Structures are given as C-alpha cells and as structure tokens.
Amino acid sequence: MKKRRRLLLAVTAVLMCTACGSDDRKADEGNAPVENSEADRSEEKETLPASQEYVSSDQTYQVTLLQGLTQTDMQLQAGTTMMGLDGGSELSGFSCVSVGGPKTGIPGNPEGIETLEDYADYIADMALDGSGVTVSWESADAAATEGADQCLAREGRAKSGTGSGQAYAYYAEAAGCYYSVIIVGNDGDVENARQVLALTFLDGTGAKDTTADFINGMSAVLDSVNGINVRETFRMLEETGTEESQLEDLASQARMSLSSNWGVENAEDLAETVDWLMKEGHNQDALQFLEEYGGTKETDRSAFDAKLKEQGLSEGMYTGLMAAYDAYIAYGEGAIAAWDLSRVGTVMGFGYASGYCSYEEAMDTLLEAAEKSKSLFGSWEDFNQSYLYGYSYWAEESLDDPDSSAAERASIVESMSAQANGPFSVDWNMELKKEW
After folding, report:
1. Same-domain check for residues 186 and 239
2. Is residue 129, in this structure, part of any structural domain at all?
3. How far apart are CA 17 and CA 342, in angstroms?
4. Which of 166, 184, 207 is the last residue of a domain?
5. pTM (2 decimals)?
6. Among candidates 249, 253, 215, 257, which has minimal Cα distance to 347?
7. Cβ 133 vs Cβ 152: under 8 Å
8. Which of 44, 135, 329, 341 has the fewest CB atoms within 10 Å, measured from its CB?
9. Which residues span the domain enclosing 202?
10. How far apart are CA 353 and CA 224, in angstroms?
C-alpha cells in the first residue's frame, strides 16, 4: 500500500507546477490599510479581476478563478477528479490544483481522515510533496459555499528555492464528499484569484456516460482501496508532457507491483494473467471446490453448512466456501466472476504503466471484460455482490465480521452505491463500444 501511496504523491506533485517567482506588482507592505468609502468599495467591486468558470470533467463541481487559465483534468479513480489550472506565460508561477470526490475516494486512500481539518492537512501535503514548494499554513477566513456543511481556508508564504510567493487553500465538506482548491503563485496573482474564487456544487447531470465510465466502475472498489486509477493517471501524465524521468519512476513502481503481487515480469506474463482472470480465475477454483465438497444447487444451505463443519476445515476455508456457495446459488456459473473481472482493470492499468501494453490494448481488453460482466450479471448490484462474495472467498474473511477487510470492502460498495453521481450511477444497460 505504501508503494501505491508514493505513486499517487509523485503523480500529484507533477501537476503542481509552482515555481514561485518575484512579483513586481506587489503592494508596498509598509503602507497602512486605509478605510474605503462606500463609493470606493462600489468601484472596487466593479473592477474585480476578470474571472472564468472551470468545470470538473465529471461535472460535479465548478471552480471560478482568474480568466485564461489552462485546464488539465485527471480522473484519479471512479468518482474522484482532479483539475489542474495553470497560468502559463501570462501568469508565470501561478498554479491551482482542485480535487473533489467522495470520502471513500480520497486520493492515496489515507487512514485517519475524520474531519475536514484532517483532510486539509493531508491534501495540502500531498499536493506539494515533491514539488520543491514549502508553505507554512495559517488559518484564514473562509467564505461560505452554498450546500456545504463546513468550509475552511488557509494561507501562507510559499517558498521555492530563492523565490517566494503566496499560497491559499480552500476546503469544503458536503454530502459525504470533500473538495479542495489549492493556489500558489506570485502575491498579486494570488490576491486577484482570492477576490474571484468560488466553489459551486453541480449535479453532474451534464456528464454523459461513456464506456470508460463503465469500465472504471468495474474497478472502482479496488481503485478506492489503492487510492488511484493507475491507467487513467499515467495516460494523462503522458499526454501532458511529463518529464521522461518522472514517467519512468512511475513505470518502475508499476513493474514492482506487478512482479510482487502477480508474478508478472513482461508482456507475455501480463497476457497470460489477464487471460486466466477472464476465462478461469478464482471463480473456476471456487466452483471446483464446491463440487468437491458437495455444494450443488440441490444442496440445502444448512445441510452444506453442516457438511463443511464435519470436515474439520480451518475457519478461513469454511468461510470462503460458504461465500462461494452463496455466490453459486445466486449467480450460477458466474458465482464470483466479478471478483476476477474487476481486477482485470487493475492489472491492465499497471501493465500499461509498466510498458507491457499500450493504452489502446488495455482498453480493448477491458471492453471484453465489461461485455463479459454484462453477460453474467444484470446490474451493478449483482456485479458488486459477486465481487464481495469473491473477496470473501479469496481472503477467507466473513462479510459479517465488522473488523474484517471484507466488511470494509462491503462498506465501500454501500457508500459508492449511494452516491448520486458515483461509479455505479452509470447505466448498466448502456451500449458498450470502443471510444478510444
């Protein structure tokens, strides 16, 4: 897990291009503030800096900021998006990173995030890690955002090498989600940005379901656990011209993950592993064990339970076989296939980042996995339940044990299923087609 978290931190730092420079436009700090008249304040309001509305790629939130910024979007995982806003040559050194998504989809999957304050501490460290920028944050007044349960703001001096500038961060909590807007740049630019900054929650209805959305939904739970969708993240970094050395660092971590977790060392191993997941996987193992222990559709559950207890099995194996039985009764030969098919996305994502396949090859394989999923299951509810049965079988943990990682996965599924614009809001019956 630590490897995956470092991977995300490095990715985020790439977006945070915050080369703070000197600002010749900065006001004389020695001048005392002067109380403005009503006419002065009216004129000041009319001469606010030119602003623009920037909408997240999933159309669930909007950030109003300075006009003319270059927007870069990244889907870190299903339901969690990042928006990068860069000043370019017009506003040299100005950069903003905004992240929005459910509490179950906090980038990096950190532990101990209980409050908005905890989230602010974490996300600011994550955004600046590896960027060469340091900020000493202090509390600041936070404007209210309509629909937010709580808002807070922080400000501070940003230092990078011999340069310095200003930093401002705004955070909001609403409807089981966290949002952040972190700005770094020259003093005058950041001051202008603060004058026009606004966060607006959207309903996401303008976003059209795509095949990629369906595919991302299949791996949403594991992406949440890992804290990142490696495939989409790596693709965005390639497309935005990230330095080759940084891409290679990420690729190296991806190769290490495949090697240690899957025994995959090259493109051939990747193809064989994915073929196994698609055609056999743990689902085939589970069906064979059920046949061996007499778990057929003609066998009453209580009778099968009693038969297993007579075998003197370990508690873990007993738990796993009961989960496999429940899956078989519910979904027949599909049983726990969703557990295998969901992981095709993760394996192909790491394979793409490792250089073992192209993005197109990864997506083509995932389209096959999505089509097979639709042939086996009739809804996200069925797919997710099969996934949970599969995890229970594989981990030999009961979904009813509140202290188990199986119960944690079930909680993630429940939370994501309740999200109006979550990964499982995508129409299960949508037409899947190649869009890449």
Report:
1. no
2. yes
3. 34
4. 207
5. 0.79
6. 257
7. no
8. 44
9. 2-23+38-207
10. 18
Residue 171 φ/ψ, nearest 5 degrees: -130, 145
Considering only CA atoms, which of 344, 394, 346 is closest in space to residue 231?
346
Q: How confident is the model at residue 401 (pLDDT cuts 50, 70, 90)?
A: very high
Contact 148, 132 (CB under 8 A): no
pLDDT in tens, 103-154: 888 888 888 899 999 999 999 988 887 777 889 999 999 999 999 999 999 9
Residue for token pair 């992240």:
99
Distances from the Cα of 326 to the Cαs of 57, 323, 334, in angstroms? 39, 5, 12
Report residue 263: phi and psi, to 5°.
70, 20
Is residue 433 helix, strand or coil?
coil
- The C-alpha atoms of residue 215 and residue 219 are separated, in whole angstroms, by 7
In this structure, the answer to whether residues 141 and 269 fall within a common structural domain is: no
Say if residues 20 and 164 touch (Cβ distance below 8 Å). Answer: yes
Q: Is residue 177 part of a domain?
A: yes
Please indicate, yes or no, whether residues 52 and 195 belong to a single structural domain of this protein: yes
Helices and strands of the chain, counted as H and E runs:
16, 11
Pick the closest to residue 123 from 139, 145, 143, 103 (CA basis). 103
93 Rama class: left (phi>0) / alpha (psi -120 to 50) / beta: left
